[in-house]
Amino acid sequence: MIRILQRLRQASEGAAPDGDVPRLDAESAFFSTAWHGGPQGPLVPWEARAVELGARPLAPRAALRRLQALWAHDRYLSTLAPDALQRMERYLHFAAVKAQRDVIQQDEYGNFMVVVLAGELVVNRRQPWGETQRLAQTGPGDLLGEMSLLDSGQRFSSCTTLVDSELAVLSAEALDDMLLHDPALAAQLIAILARKLSVRLRAVSSRLGHPS
């Protein structure tokens, strides 16, 4: 997170970076070449997954209006100003996906997150002994895969469409582009994602009986 904040500060100030953090310029690929622990496996970007899924592009303007309506009811995402949401359109992919498709697959390395615009997705984790555990069922407005967006790390679980669904997708490459061309928007979005991840991790910690 410190490295992320350094990059945001450089982008907003136009200052030269310090230490081992490379300069933010037209070749910037901070999130799309992010770090993660352990040996790296093949990275599955959204473009490849969309082909596998047979995803159909959605009209951006109508999809963005749906996203705005959903995020207006979210405690954290509602803090994004209307003009900020309008600026996000250039960085998002909007797609329709048929039922029973694995949008995210457990253990793969990925670098995109999805926002459910319509439909339902189930979050499952396959245990080492072969049992599949259902972790959550998600619907419109929910975010999935945001941790791998930030670190290009291994997916903890699979996310599968239960019914025909519509998604907004933000890739690491698009987040790099946002960081370069609209650092204020990138800073706001990353702060919101960090806050939502913190809330989620605290909830898990509480369920495990280890309050932080």
UniProtKB/TrEMBL annotation:
GO MF entries: DNA-binding transcription factor activity
Gene3D superfamilies, per the entry: Jelly Rolls
Domain Cyclic nucleotide-binding stretches: 76-196
Domain of life: Bacteria
PROSITE patterns membership: CNMP_BINDING_3 (PS50042)
A cellular component term, taken from the record's GO annotations: cytosol
Stretches of the chain forming a coiled coil according to its record: none
Family matches, as PANTHER family: CRP FAMILY TRANSCRIPTIONAL REGULATORY PROTEIN, HTH-TYPE TRANSCRIPTIONAL REGULATOR ARCR
Listed name of the protein: Cyclic nucleotide-binding domain-containing protein
Organism this protein belongs to: Comamonas antarctica
